[in-house]
Amino acid sequence: xxxxxxxxxxxxxxxxxxxxxxxxxxxxxxxxxxxxxxxxxxxxxxxxxxxxxxxxxxxxxxxxxxxxxxxxxxxxxxxxxxxxxxxxxxxxxxxxxxxxxxxxxxxxxxxxxxxxxxxxxxxxxxxxxxxxxxxxxxxxxxxxxxxxxxxxxxxxxxxxxxxxxxxxxxxxxxxxxxxxxxxxxxxxxxxxxxxxxxxxxxxxxxxxxxxxxxxxxxxxxxxxxxxxxxxxxxxxxxxxxxxxxxxxxxxxxxxxxxxxxxxxxxxxxxxxxxxxxxxxxxxxxxxxxxxxxxxxxxxxxxxxxxxxxxxxxxxxxxxxxxxxxxxxxxxxxxxxxxxxxxxxxxxxxxxxxxxxxxxxxxxxxxxxxxxxxxxxxxxxxxxxxxxxxxxxxxxxxxxxxxxxxxxxxxxxxxxxxxxxxxxxxxxxxxxxxxxxxxxxxxxxxxxxxxxxxxxxxxxxxxxxxxxxxxxxxxxxxxxxxxxxxxx
Length: 487
What we know:
Keywords: NAD, Oxidoreductase. Residues 289-473 form the Mannitol dehydrogenase C-terminal domain. By secondary structure, the chain is of the alpha/beta class. It is 45% helix and 11% strand. It has 20 helices and 12 strands. It has a 5-stranded parallel β-sheet with strand order 6-3-2-7-8, sandwiched between helices. A 4-stranded mixed β-sheet has the order 1-5-4-10, with helices on both faces. Helix 10 (289-314) packs across helix 17 (402-416) and helix 17 (402-416) packs across helix 19. The protein is globular, with a radius of gyration of 24 Å.
């Protein structure tokens, strides 16, 4: 177990907080104390706390579930007084280990609702942040509005002063805050979600409007929701991984954490009640967050999807293993260099060629053990989001379409559900109907071209282009992925 007393005698290879952890007070309440939060927002806050006059920006974590692993996490964080170790590993294997001291408390919302609500309403709380996953904002994809029909939301609406959801807790906390005259604050999404601030505003104001229209108007006018782009690979940590991390560090940490050495956070400077001095610890402030999101989606996410499709067909489990195949590496590099970068406007001050090199280095980091199957899940939806602009730019611009056509063939072969040895692939395609899954599984190389994966550029699918896709599928089956790659 790791405690404050251990900070006095840490191993030589482990850095400790360079500030007095006992003097840190809470100014941020964070919902969803998962690995990404602990390696991203908490990472930046830990560095801010080392600066003068920043001690009031500590974090109180809030868990929204109780029982099982949630209870264990709460017990372990409390036992360690919020301390945990972060091991950052670069692609070359070099590691840096640090004990983080920014987490001041951990509350279980279902067990301590009044403590959570009081904290949200407290004048000292300036920021409410969250990592609740991309799907946690409860936005209807068809209407674009907050869904009030879910049972948990309905329960909160029936008794808003005794909430159970994050929307219920935050809005009731803000109601109490307004009543106490403490003014607005900032609600800050740290989820990997495009326009995450705008989505957050829609969710929380939407819920508030269903409770009290006047309160919703007050939130709209007094609470800010900055958009942000976040990036860092932070894998899950098994019990076996924990033992290895502690062996490496020499600590007895109940909650050790692993991440890559790369980190990025680009955010709008829209904070209603002040903010930490994030600009002094590497956070990028800009009013053009969407440009950074755009580059990430078209370069990182799009190439991730190519790697995952190739990996599933090759029966490889990890992203670094897939990229370790020279022909795959060359192909992904060529797609980025020849198809994406020439048709993408760079964010201010960003060299897209250097960004490409950084991405490929990150993907090759074996220590992250990034699962191919995780990235390949819901490939149909991901293709429409990650590939559409590149595909349309290549096809409409009359550019060489060799690589883009192969990517489409590769995706359809993935959706077929068999690797290149003919073995079944465990697909996760939650938005395809049973009939569509049957079409995807067909051995006919032309039939599944009609699946929704290509809907965003279907108007450009000429008969000739469809034949090219089908031909590439035949090549993949006949020669295998590595031999058929157009490199």
